[in-house]
Amino acid sequence: MTKxxxxxxxxxxxxxxxxxxxxxxxxxxxxxxxxxxCRIRERFHEGMLRPGGTVSGPTLMALADVAMYVVLxxxxxxxxxxxxxxxxxxxxxxxxxxxxxxxxxxxxxLGKRLAVGEVTLKSGALPDPIAHVTATYSxxxx
Length: 142
Prior knowledge:
The relative contact order is 0.20. This protein has about 140 residues and is of the alpha+beta class. The protein has helices at about 10-20, 20-25, 55-75, and strands spanning about 30-35, 35-40, 50, 55, 85-90, 100-110, 115-125, 130-140. The strands form two sheets. Strands 1-2-6-7-8-5 form a six-stranded antiparallel sheet. A two-stranded antiparallel ribbon has the order 3-4. The protein is globular.
């Protein structure tokens, strides 16, 4: 198990400072982050829905990207210029309206320049995933 380089409180403060446009509303909560994995939650709001009453793909992709960023920062510390270089998503089933979306991310490989991970997205307390994501982040030379 990797020792976390940032606590949940430090991650919250960093993300609010660096990305106020995404985190000021308080819709996304980091529930845990330990340097190997994390769990974040986006509270349900009507803006998540696409026509037909399902959680939109862009909502799920954005949350998965945030989850990967959170788990990476928890492992390497506050490196603001770490960026997504690849993100692949498989939509598995409809995200139910009214349910928060949960993202559980884990690092599969953490190198000096690249990190690879996966994210499982769930709709509320439902047991089956609604999407599965793999992502790669580029880590700048600091």
